[in-house]
Specification:
The protein has 299 residues and is mostly helical. It is built from twelve helices and no strands.
Length: 299
């Protein structure tokens, strides 16, 4: 007798095909959708409140005028916006090259059998979960007072660099690791050195992931207030920084200062400044998405 090609499906497949989705799986999906809806609704509600509250002050005075504690109608956040640009730019200058080079060493050159390389990897992973206020204490004790840099842009940018450096390293390592080994093997087999392989093959292919992770790390740095308050970032400043040795303020500190005021006009100013900060974050995240889509390689 010739056996037929038809075979009986496993009980799990039969149940999914014939009887539909199990009840507990339906409840699990419903819980997931409910959690997503709660998060989205709260986010939309907060954004709506901030935009409506700050809409009267979303004008050119906000980014052309300096803070004013006497007349809120003429107060602005020019010094905070300029200080934010200075601090984040210096943070990127310090942490991005260090993070990328560290990731290249750990992925392409480090011998994982060496105990010090394993110790470096473990410490990097642990440092990524350290609260930001701890970095503020470190910056105050070591960078500001120990090295004598004071309450300057340099101190703030170095502290924030330490804060986001583990994120840059981890994201860069993941991007480098995602490049197929066949690309490296093909390059080496054609006579290229390891450095030429890394520079001409691995790094160009890893650019999308590295750029995305770096910009997201800087997006975290731009919204930090706790470590900068601990470092002595000024809450009221009527001049723009002129260098890394200048005193500074940033948008999160300025928002904190306005929120703490009792007059309702300052609440509207704080909401308008929050909108400006969200726009900057949105632009940075949009740039990360564009870089990822533009430079992505399909293997």
């Amino acid at each position: 007798m010739i056996p037929t090609a038809a075979t009986s499906d496993p009980p799990e497949v039969t149940r999914l095909r014939g009887r539909g989705t199990p009840l507990r799986e339906r409840f699990f999906r419903l819980g997931l959708w409910a959690s997503l809806a709660v998060g989205v609704l709260f986010l939309v509600g907060l954004l709506t409140y901030v935009v409506v509250e700050g809409w009267p002050r979303l004008n050119s005075k906000l980014w052309t005028n300096f803070p004013d504690v006497i007349d809120p109608s003429n107060a602005g956040a020019q010094s905070a916006i300029t200080g934010t640009v200075w601090v984040v730019s210096c943070t990127a200058l310090y942490c991005l090259p260090t993070g990328v080079l560290t990731a290249i060493y750990l992925e392409e050159y480090a011998d994982r059998d060496r105990w010090w390389n394993r110790a470096i990897e473990i410490n990097i992973q642990n440092l990524a979960a350290v609260p930001s206020i701890v970095y503020g204490i470190l910056g105050l004790g070591v960078i500001s007072r120990g090295l004598g840099f004071g309450q300057t842009v340099l101190t703030a940018s170095l502290t924030l660099s330490l804060l986001v450096l583990p994120i840059v390293i981890i994201s860069s390592r993941e991007a480098i690791r995602a490049v197929p080994q066949s690309v490296r093997q093909a390059s080496l087999s054609l006579g290229a050195t390891q450095w030429q392989t890394v520079r001409r093959q691995v790094l160009p292919a890893a650019v999308p992931g590295m750029a995305t992770g770096s910009i997201l790390a800087l997006s975290r740095a731009i919204g930090e207030a706790a470590p900068l308050l601990l470092l002595g970032g000024l809450t009221f400043i009527t001049f723009n920084p002129t260098g890394v040795q200048s005193q500074f303020t940033v948008l999160p500190i300025q928002i904190f200062n306005w929120i703490s005021q009792s007059r309702a006009e300052f609440t509207a100013l704080a909401s308008a400044a929050i909108v400006v900060l969200l726009v900057i974050l949105l632009v940075m995240n949009s740039l990360a998405i564009w870089l990822r889509n533009h430079f992505t390689h399909r293997w």
